[in-house]
Amino acid sequence: MRSFSTLIALRSRGGLRQGILSSPQRHASTFQQTIAATSPRTTWTRDEISDIYNQPLMELASAAGNVHRRFHRPSAIQLCTLMNIKTGGCTEDCSYCAQSSRYSTGLQATKLSTVNSVLEAAKIAKENGSNRFCMGAAWRDMKGRKSGMQNIVEMVKGVRAMGMEACVTLGMLDKEQAKQLKEAGLTAYNHNLDTSREHYSNIITTRSYDERLQTIENVREAGIHVCSGGILGLGEVPETDHVGLIHTLATLPEHPESFPVNKLVPIKGTPMFGQEPVKLEDLVRCIATARLVMPATIIRLAAGRVTMPESEQMLCFMAGANAIFTGEKMLTTDCNGWDEDKAMFGRWGLEPLQTEASKLLGDSGSVHHDQVISEDPRVRIGEERLQAQG
């Protein structure tokens, strides 16, 4: 009798439809089914994700690495640079954020940066190998910011004209504003959920979880890639809150194009200052689980990477992370520099991930990350070997 793994390999070319399982698959564990997946699905239950998350860590990380290789080139890491285009003065009470006007952090509020200064920074990022340029403004939302939106539209157009992906994070966004950014050529919109629905009210009270989800829906409906993730180390319970965060994003109509994983950087003057740092094993579990549950998504090591030794970063890459922020700053926190990351890439045989920066989700002929990777001959050869074993 053929083994479960052989049966899965034989069916992989046939594109087994979501929700239709063969008899051996129905009796296999959630973990086994996940390891064998050849396409993403959005029908996850929280219990299924919890089962994956709580696997022995070595088994979990190894499985995530294998699935990662099915959907992505393991040596390819996307380089992203994030610029704060409007600092401080935000009316929100996010308890981790230096830019909230409610906390005394010593941060000086500024006006929106000029278009030329932003494009100059984008040019420097591109020259240093960054593929995506992200722009963040410390606003609750975009209501009444017509001139600000006009300038941001010009920033987006300028970044795209350089052949880079353009991402912005501007707070809450309505459908019309999302449409404006889509027409400007925006690649992605970042709007993090931060944590699970259950833990969220312990961190933020001025914006609801559902308001965040509505912004994500407005962005998705406009045809812009969704970038949404969380912050680890907010006093959450990893076994439930990391699972809850992943479950919410993995059951959206489409998985996020990218999932940023931030380690809390405690800022003096904020309620989160002095918080116990997230444990490495919990960070790796979160990344590995996200990779298994959202296999085609880009998983980005974001804030707090600067505190991680190179060995810890490599462990995260091996467990499924495949993007980083690099450059001078990450909003208000320190970031690993380009030269430092170039040296790390050289030591470990990593290379910058090149994406279809001129394509947008929903365009005819659009090429998704998983489609780009599936054209890699190493993946095709691997699939042929699996079939030959049957």
UniProtKB/TrEMBL annotation:
Its EC number is 2.8.1.6. [2Fe-2S] cluster binds at residues 134, 167, 227, 300. Keywords: 2Fe-2S, 4Fe-4S, Biotin biosynthesis, Iron, Iron-sulfur, Metal-binding, Mitochondrion, S-adenosyl-L-methionine, Transferase. Gene3D superfamilies: Aldolase class I. Coiled coil: none annotated. GO terms for biological process: biotin biosynthetic process. It comes from the Eukaryota. GO terms for molecular function: 2 iron, 2 sulfur cluster binding; 4 iron, 4 sulfur cluster binding; biotin synthase activity; metal ion binding. [4Fe-4S] cluster binds at residues 90, 94, 97. Its cofactor is [4Fe-4S] cluster; [2Fe-2S] cluster. Binds 1 [4Fe-4S] cluster. The cluster is coordinated with 3 cysteines and an exchangeable S-adenosyl-L-methionine. Signal peptide: none annotated. The keyword Transmembrane helix does not apply. SUPFAM superfamilies: Radical SAM enzymes. CDD domains: Radical_SAM. Residues 75-305 form the Radical SAM core domain. Pathway: Cofactor biosynthesis; biotin biosynthesis; biotin from 7,8-diaminononanoate: step 2/2. Belongs to the radical SAM superfamily. Biotin synthase family. HAMAP family: BioB (MF_01694). This is biotin synthase.
